[in-house]
Specification:
eight-stranded mixed sheet
Length: about 325
Amino acid sequence: MATKLINGIHHVTALADDPQKNVDFYAGILGLRLVKKTINFDAPDVYHFYYGNEIGAPGTIMTFFPYAGIRRGRKGVGQLTVTSFSVPANSLGYWADRLKKFGLQPSAVQTRFDEAYLTFEDFDGLTIELVANDQDDRPPFTYGQIPEEHAVRGFYGVTLSEDSYERTALLLTDTMHHEKLGETGDRLRYSASGKPGDFVDILRLPQGQRGLGGGGTVHHLAFGTDNDDTQVTIRTKIAEQGLNVTPVLDRQYFHSIYFREPGGVLFEIATNPPGFLFDEGKDTLGTALKLPPWEEPNRPAIEAGLTPVEIRVNDFK
C-alpha cells in the first residue's frame, strides 16, 4: 500500500491585532494552552503564538501573528473563512453561557451533517465554530477555569470559501489523499483521516466577494505529513500539478512548504516532528520567549520591542 503523504490538518494560522487580547481570548476564554511563544521568523518584531492541547499535537494547533494596529481584513472567497473546534456532546449550552459572560455573541445552535454547532467571532472578528460531538477521543486540556468535561479537544475542521471548487476538490482527492465524505447544499466535506480534527469543507460561493487579508482573517492552512521524506515526495507531486511551491523552510518545530491552491487559499504542508517539546519541557511549554538560533544574538533588541503578555486565567473563570 502506498504511503499516505498527508494525514490531516496540522495547524491554522491567522492575523490578529493586540497580543494580550489574543492571549486573553484563546488561552483565557477558549481555554487552549499557549504551547509556544516565539516570533514570526519572517518578521522578528512580531510575536508568533501557538495554542493547542497539552503538547500542541497536530490537529489542535491554532497560531497567530498579532500585528498591533493591523487593519481589519475582509472574509470572503479565496480564504479559509471558518475555523471549527471540537467540544464534547452536550457542551454547547455551557459554551453559549461562557461566551456571553465575556461579552461575545454566539449564534443559536444550528445543525449540519447531523452535527450541532454554534458560531461566534473572536476579538478581531475571526469566525469560530464549536461543534459538539461524541466521536472525539483526544484528551482535553484545561488551565482549570474550564471543566474538563467541556474543554476543547482540538480542531473539528475548517471551511474554505471558493467561487469555483472543482480544481480545489481535485487537488485534495487526487494529490493530498483526502476522501469526499458528504455534501449538503453548497457545502462539500473532505477528510484525510475521517476523524474530528481533519474535516475540510468547501463552501461554494460562485458570486461571492473576494476576501482581503488583514486582522481577523486566516493567513494559511497547514496539513501534516509524517517526515522530511514524505514532505519531499508531496512537494514533487504538487509541483507536477503546475503549482508554485516554495523550497522546504525550517520553522524549528516543523519543516514547511507553501503554495496557493487553485482557489487562492495559501496551503502549507508541515512535518509532524519535531514538535513543540523541541526546546521546552512539557511542564513549561509557552512560558519563555523562544527564538531560533539565528535570532539569539538579537534577543535584547527583540525582547525590548515586544509587549509583554501573560496568561490571565483568574480573569476568565
